[in-house]
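User: Teach me something about this protein's shape.
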Amino acid sequence: MTLSFVLPRGELALRAAKGTPVALSLRRFAHSPGLPTGSVAGGSGAILRIPTDASAQPWRLLISAAQAVRLGSLPDEVPPAKGTA
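Assistant: First, the predicted structure itself:
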């Protein structure tokens, strides 16, 4: 199955369920399938960082996967873990 998502500015966290590698592609101005960007191994995660620029056109992420993939944006500032200074 292939799904397409509008990317938030900054960073996006991905976590793939166990299974085959998940193929990632990006596109911005084209209507074509997108530029192959890489893959995430089943059972692992990755952080996708998109640099900001002056364009208002958002990036789209295309995910081709046979298993579930969780997506989530990262906060601008990650607070320190409890018990650390």
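Now, about its shape. The mean pLDDT is 85. DSSP finds no helices and seven strands in the chain. If you'd like, I can walk through any region in more detail.
User: That's plenty for now, thanks!
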